[in-house]
Amino acid sequence: MRSNWSKVVTVVRRYSKEPAAGRTPSVAGGEQDPARLFLNPHAWKGLPADQVFELHLLRVKSMKDAYNPTNDERTAILSTIKSLSGKKAALDYAFEIENFKEKLMNNTPMKERGTPQKLSNQFVINDGSVPHHKRRIENLTRVAAYEIPLLAKYRQPYNPRPSQETPLQLTYNSDFSEETSNSHNRKIKLSVRLSDLNLNPQQEHKFKILAGNKFNHVTGTFNLKCERYPEAAQNVNWAVTTFHKLLEESRDLKETFADIPLRKPIKKKNKVPVNFPRDWKRPAPLRPNNIVERLVADAEAVKDEAYLQSISP
After folding, report:
1. Domain holding 239: CATH number?
2. CA–centroid distance for 70 within its chain
3. Residue 233 in domain
4. Are 257 and 205 in contact (CB under 8 A)?
5. Contacts of 248 (CB under 8 A, 6+ apart)
6. Total number of domains in the chain
């Protein structure tokens, strides 16, 4: 044992020829003996910070798997913090001090102190967006399965109001995401039938002229889409305001636009298949004359017949 300690002591540096104040000189075989100093953490108090750190590393290296930090070792290392000032550079063992605080100043059981850190086996996404979105979909599915059917007791007959009283029809879009300003969620559509606006023929003509290609002459409806603003409510406000301006101009008959004809879209007629006479059809393609193949087949037939005659009795 003595020889092993002498090999270990060669790593420890000497910091002062004079013993520290209030401490007795080291005696061979005692606690202050450099050969056994790393085994006695309670004797580290008052030593320079660098020496305490080297003793700590030496203790960890020598004990290997059997190493377990003690309260005396923790106290000795933490006591070196007071000797450091802001002007001095940070020492390399700052991380080791935090490691001691984590191991000895928390609620870690005594059996698990000094053991490697346990890693979680739970797969975690960095930003957490995918699990959050998955939980939201699961919550919506759970509500649809268990809570929405309970609303049946509040069921009432639906009596829609006449279309002349509520002519406007607004269509919203949603992809069930929290982002309401994307290109899909902010898009809206305003639809209204011309027959529900109670306009006379002159006003209807002016309305069609002003609406332009927004009016469908086949279905008799006016359609207006908007996605210029970031929120759907803003787009609805713009579409409704624009429609009211158009309706007010249509009802104002100071200028009837009677001399302007309607520009209806021309519907393309379906092409009727033409039945050509049979004589005009292309003749069937001629089969190629495989003269070489026919000659080879005839020669093989002659040879086969001659061979059969030679072996026949």
Report:
1. 3.30.160.20
2. 46
3. yes
4. yes
5. none
6. 2
Closest by CA to 59, choosing from 96, 14, 101, is 96
Other CB atoms within 10 A of residue 58 CB: 17
CA 30 vs. chain centroid, Å, equals 64
Helices (H) and strands (E) in the chain, counts: 8, 4
* Cβ(36)–Cβ(5) below 8 Å: yes
Which tens digits make up the pLDDT trace of 27-67? 445 555 656 788 888 888 888 888 888 888 888 888 877 77
Q: pLDDT digits over 153-193, tens only?
A: 999 998 988 888 899 999 999 988 888 888 899 999 999 99
Distances (CA, A) of 43 to 16, 26, 72, 92, 295: 16, 11, 9, 22, 114
Instruction: Quote the domain boundaries for residue 209.
Output: 164-251
- State how far the Cα of 207 lies from the Cα of 50, in Å rounded to an integer: 91
| 191: helix, strand or coil | strand
Amino acid at residue number 88: K
For 311, the 3-state DSSP assignment is helix
pLDDT at position 37 is 82
Distance CA 41, CA 71 (A): 9
- Mean pLDDT across 147-152: 91
Domain assignment of residue 18, yes or no: no
Joined tokens for residue 211: 């609406």
Closest CA to 20 of 54, 53, 52, 47: 47
Residue 179 belongs to some domain of the structure:
yes
Residues 6+ apart with CB under 8 A from 48: 15, 16, 80, 83
Task: Please check whether residue 103 is in contact with residue 78, taking contact to mean a CB–CB distance below 8 angstroms.
Answer: no
The C-alpha atoms of residue 225 and residue 235 are separated, in whole angstroms, by 9
